[in-house]
Amino acid sequence: MNILKGNITNIQGSDSLSLIKIAVGSSTFTAIIIDTPESDAYFKIGDAVKVYFKETEVIIAKNENLNISIPNKILCTIISIKNGEILSELHLSFGEFTIKSLITTNAVKTLNLKNGDAVLALIKTNEVSLSPND
């Protein structure tokens, strides 16, 4: 599980949903949550939160200029690749942060990924979870 710390910069609410933007270093993550009385109490602009997403939810692209509906586009550098027979684990850095991505080894070969490559890490909004940063 990837866990990052950030601060809420914007909240857009409609019906029982909130679209929340979180600054993590110089990058911005977006999460969508179902509003509850509890979430209303602990998600306020400026609050520190933890941002969670699974390694299997991190999509890797080599083209930095994708015109795509996924708002979480984080420019990263590959710092290590651990190739398995079926799956490969990529360690990616952006700013002072490190995240992991788990993709197929075939995808690593197809994209010709190697240490030091600049890649775009893509995470769908609905795959990002938040909790208060206690």
Structural overview:
Strand 1 (2-14) and strand 2 (17-24) form a beta hairpin. The model has no long low-confidence stretch (mean pLDDT 92). The chain has one domain (2-132): RNA polymerase II/Efflux pump adaptor protein, barrel-sandwich hybrid domain (OB fold (Dihydrolipoamide Acetyltransferase, E2P), Beta Barrel), CATH 2.40.50. It has helices at 37-42, 105-110; strands at 2-14, 17-24, 27-34, 48-53, 59-61, 72-83, 87-94, 97-104, 118-123, 129-132. The strands form 2 sheets. A 5-stranded antiparallel beta sheet has the order 3-2-1-4-10, with no helix packed on it. A 5-stranded antiparallel beta sheet has the order 5-9-6-7-8. With 134 residues, the protein is mainly beta. The protein has 2 helices and 10 strands. Helices cover 9% and strands 57% of the residues.
